Amino acid sequence: MIICHCTSISDHDIHAAIDWMRNADPDTLITPGKIYHALGKAADCGGCMPLFLDTMRNNDKLTVPAHLQNLRRTATQESTYEGRPQSHRLSQQSAAS
After folding, report:
1. CA nearest 10: which of 57, 55, 60?
2. pLDDT at residue 44 above 90?
3. Which is more confident, 82 or 20?
4. How far apart are CA 56 and CA 42, in angstroms?
5. Which of 31, 36, 37, 90 is the most buried (most CB within 10 A)?
6. Which string of b and e fits 58-80 if b means at least 16 CB within 10 Å?
């Protein structure tokens, strides 16, 4: 089935690219951009992206490698530090006024 009419990408092309990338590097994170690049193409209008992503998700080899899962910090662990020196921050009381 044709997934992207602009660049003539089929579901078979997407699955073949995912299989090739996973076989070449089992730890790689597979993204739509990497699939387009592997196929030697570039996204055009983006109208196919929902179907493109659904096709990707249906591939058994699209899983994220176990050691790369859950790398995000939880909201309670995230810092509110914005990278500026403390002297440049507004105090909470000044900001509320």
Report:
1. 55
2. no
3. 20
4. 16
5. 36
6. ebeebeeeeeeeeeeeeeeeeee
Which residues are paired to 9 by β-bridges? 4
Q: Are 4 and 42 in contact (CB under 8 A)?
A: no
Expressed in angstroms, the distance from the first to the final Cα of the chain is: 59
Residue 79 has pLDDT above 90, yes or no: no
Place of tokens 């659904």: 54
- pLDDT at residue number 97: 55
Pairwise CA distance, residues 31 & 24, whole Å: 15
Q: Two tokens at 18?
A: 């995912």
Please name the residues in contact with 19: beta carbons below 8 A apart, sequence gap of 6 or more: 59, 61
Instruction: List CB contacts of 47: < 8 A, sequence separation 6 or more.
Output: 6
